[in-house]
């Protein structure tokens, strides 16, 4: 077993330079048969953690040398080996072994294989699980605002309250769901998979009623507020569980990065599918055909016969009924896609527990784990940077249809422009995956996200069809980078935290749930304020044209505001400390911890036998 463990760890060390890997391996081998004195957890092990923490933060901005990597890896190996022997030595007396009530390391079948390579089929099934959330989110991001204003016909202030309160409610429920997930026990299908399966049918129902116009008028605001909050709660149950699942499909960083690339490709395809389904089905509800030939002004009403006025009103009501019907059809189709993708993901993905560290006798409370996560510097920097970048993308996304309809004169083409943006994003995901592997994730973030800024301003100042399609192709590149990179960098942050806190396990859901919490909270505030700005500018619900202040406000929401958020986010991202050298060092040390975990489990099995 020792030979096999050594072989697995040597395979995991291939990313390091030859000299560093060889030195680390030879040092580990030289200590493999040395008898250590028992260590207590509060003394020597704590000193090791302090040494680990100082290396993880002091050298984030400095490329670590091979000597540091070797000393870092061997110190962890030495301490964990000694601690394991101390634990085993205390189980019996007078040279006799007694069966322990709870082994130091949980005996799970998944822990016996460190080289967890994922098949293409497994990666595809995992990636397909990302599509349901993106399909529904894309449809609501592009069309919910204009649906509330022009189809449900609630005023702009009420629409801003629905969007703001719903997003904030979704943000608040994220950490609550993360807390509940951390308290969940492992089942035959895992710890996260029951959450994904359990929330899906209720989520589909709530999503359908979000696009249903109730027969009453006075209570429509409450109707949409309730179902939007319910939808946000259930989609959080799905998304937090699915996002944290990334850490439990493989222990190999390359495999996780590859699976994340598959996932991001399918996410963009899901966004494309949601926009395509919703856009193509409901496009007829937003064309000029439903607008009357004459403006319904006082002069027109005074100079027209009663029959003409009635005919115009009936014409408008017919198109309004048609709009309600096509939105319900689109909701039903998207609900069916959600169910299908969830089933495929469940059948093709197996959740596995990661043996990176020993099992503690006492579980760390949620609040203590939360404070540990919030004090982790790389996590705070990454979250703050992509919070602002994501807010910029969502601000553009939510106001794009309104901009094309009322500010750019592209009412008949907006659904096709949206499709071009998303097709460009889908096709560029493999390029960004290659780019981040070749030049690093941080460099990819700067190159990819800055690309959108000049083209967005071009559309604001030159709003014609040809420029719109050029901007759509270029913007797709940045959107793909903004989707891929945060979810590719977050597992690196979790690995860095795991290495500093090897005895604090099960906090992956906290990382993902609070990341989504901060993103949604900021996005909810921003979108609520942007819709409120349209109200102050004089937005007219159900009107075919909007006054000049509304047009100017839409240009600001599409151009200047997103650029300001992006620039601020990139300035924060400069401080992100986990470069490629740090990633390689963390991989080596975690592999050593996993090897010790497997070796200790095997030794206990032999002693108990």
UniProtKB/TrEMBL annotation:
Cellular location(s): Membrane
Keyword Coiled coil: no
InterPro entries membership: MFS_2, MFS_trans_sf
Membrane topology: Multi-pass membrane protein
UniProt region (Disordered), positions on chain: 1-38
Chief place where the protein resides: membrane
UniProt keyword annotations, A-Z: Membrane, Transmembrane, Transmembrane helix
Record bears the keyword S-adenosyl-L-methionine: no
Residues passing through the membrane, by range: 192-210, 222-249, 326-349, 370-393, 413-432, 444-462, 468-488, 509-537, 557-578
Domain of life: Eukaryota
Gene3D superfamilies named in the record: MFS general substrate transporter like domains
Family: Belongs to the major facilitator superfamily.
Name recorded for this polypeptide: Major facilitator superfamily domain-containing protein 2B
